[in-house]
């Protein structure tokens, strides 16, 4: 018996009464369970970090593009139509998770990263020559989102093969790449748009994506390809839908995640509507993403110590509470009061309410086993992704229905309550453990 196998067999699974009680099923034996050498672990972890920096960080800065499209390029287009571009880029990776996650397990993580990288780069460079709205929808929305669907699942699944004991912390580091991208890219994108225009902005982002994703693909080439097993040729594996734990977790998370994405799209315009300086409003988005790096690492450490499911519930509830306690009153005031409350909101949700993004793959691995993890996370995200896609458009439609366009309270209430209710409903999963 190897030292790695002995470590896995002797690791404590339950350290508190709230910790997930049911042991994960034993993974199937394959070369995929053989961890990479200690020399390739840092490279693979950095590669996954770079992938989320590009694939998640760029869509998280769509609020800057939205403001530019509404004010300059497509002033006659309704905001609800423009926001669809960012919604597709941010949520297609979830909706298409079942087939693309299965693709990663079936053909290898490196192949999935290659296909996705080519699509992302193509989408960015194609957007640099677009002039019509439907062209941006196809390039920046559909093509980029489809590319993210291929690269995301290898990125968030590889940490399970690298770190079995500290999976929560390791995956928090991986997903923090998206937070870092969402921190630095909004400000950088605004500067590029102001100084060089839209085509040069997309070209710069395209070259950045080419470099980072190219390095990531090179690192994933070192990862062993699992052998093809009998029965593994299915496009999608629906077997988990027979597990009551999975269904309860799926229903609760779908509700909560519907309220997750609107803050990334609406925090900047809602701040501007309350009289906050546009530059400071853009900085708020970057601050929220930047602080979520520390927040995700912290909740990952909490998950490793006190239980993955417990940490996921806490993250949803705290994020929903932050919407109601700070963002809701912020959109009811103007001037300095709005500035102060908006700032407190982004600090609160950045530090305490951003961990669920990294925790979902960790919880699924903990409850249902780490074999074929990309397929399992992909199936889960495909169903949850419907709500993620609908959330921003629904919240924006609520704002637009107010007539004046500056009454944001119901949209914030909509998002906050969904996350709070979904997080509390997730506690029902304990009953079936």
Can you tag this structure with a few keywords?
18 helices, mainly alpha, disordered N terminus, MFS_dom, 433 residues, Growth Hormone, Chain: A
Tell me about this structure.
With 433 residues, the chain is mainly alpha-helical. Helix content is 75%, strand content 0%. It is built from 18 helices and no strands. It is globular and about 50 Å long. The relative contact order is 0.17. Mean pLDDT is 83; it is low at 1-33 and 227-231.
Structure, briefly:
Pfam families: MFS_1. The protein is an all-alpha fold and 433 residues long.
Determine the strand fraction and express it as a percent band.
Answer: under 5%
String of helices and strands: HHHHHHHHHHHHHHHHHH
Give the class from helix and strand content and strand pairing: mainly alpha
Helix content: over 70%
Looking at the overall shape, the CATH architecture is: Up-down Bundle
What distance lies between the first and last C-alpha atoms, to the nearest angstrom? 30 Å
How many domains is the backbone divided into?
Answer: 1
CATH superfamily: MFS general substrate transporter like domains
Provide the residue-averaged pLDDT: 83
């Amino acid at each position: 018996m190897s030292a790695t196998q002995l470590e896995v067999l002797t690791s404590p699974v339950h350290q508190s009464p709230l910790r997930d009680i049911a042991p994960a099923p034993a993974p199937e034996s394959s070369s995929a369970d053989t961890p990479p050498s200690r020399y390739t672990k840092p490279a693979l972890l950095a590669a996954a970090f770079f992938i989320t920096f590009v694939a998640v960080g760029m869509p998280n800065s769509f609020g800057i593009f939205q403001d530019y499209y509404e004010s300059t390029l497509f002033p006659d287009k309704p905001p609800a139509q423009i926001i669809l571009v960012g919604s597709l880029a941010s949520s297609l990776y979830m909706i298409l998770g079942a087939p693309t996650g299965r693709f990663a397990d079936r053909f290898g993580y490196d192949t999935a990263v290659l296909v996705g990288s080519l699509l992302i780069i193509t989408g960015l460079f194609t957007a640099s020559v677009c002039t019509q709205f439907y062209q941006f929808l196809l390039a920046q929305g559909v093509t980029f989102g489809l590319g993210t669907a291929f690269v995301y699942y290898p990125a968030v699944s590889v940490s399970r093969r690298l770190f079995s004991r500290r999976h929560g912390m390791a995956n928090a580091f991986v997903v923090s790449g998206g937070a870092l991208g969402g921190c630095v890219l909004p400000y950088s994108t605004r500067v590029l748009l102001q100084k060089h225009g839209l085509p040069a902005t997309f070209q710069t982002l395209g070259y950045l994506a080419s470099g980072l994703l190219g390095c990531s693909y090179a690192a994933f080439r070192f990862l062993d390809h699992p052998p093809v097993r009998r029965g593994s040729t299915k496009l999608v594996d629906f077997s988990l839908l027979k597990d009551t734990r999975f269904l309860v977790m799926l229903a609760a998370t779908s509700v909560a995640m519907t309220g997750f994405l609107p803050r990334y799209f609406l925090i900047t315009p809602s701040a501007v509507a309350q009289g906050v300086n546009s530059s400071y409003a853009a900085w708020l988005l970057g601050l929220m993403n930047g602080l979520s790096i520390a927040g995700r690492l912290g909740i990952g450490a909490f998950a490793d110590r006190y239980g993955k499911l417990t940490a996921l519930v806490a993250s949803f509830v705290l994020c929903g509470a932050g919407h109601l306690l700070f963002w809701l009153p912020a959109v009811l005031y103007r001037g300095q009061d709005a500035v102060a409350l908006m700032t407190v909101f982004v600090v609160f949700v950045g530090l305490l309410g951003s961990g669920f993004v990294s925790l979902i793959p960790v919880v699924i691995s903990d409850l249902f086993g780490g074999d074929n993890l990309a397929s399992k996370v992909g199936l889960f995200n495909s169903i949850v992704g419907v709500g993620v896609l609908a959330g921003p458009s629904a919240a924006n439609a609520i704002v637009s229905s107010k007539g004046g366009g500056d009454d944001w309270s119901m949209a914030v209430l909509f998002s906050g309550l969904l996350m709070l209710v979904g997080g509390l409903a997730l506690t029902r999963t304990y009953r079936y453990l």
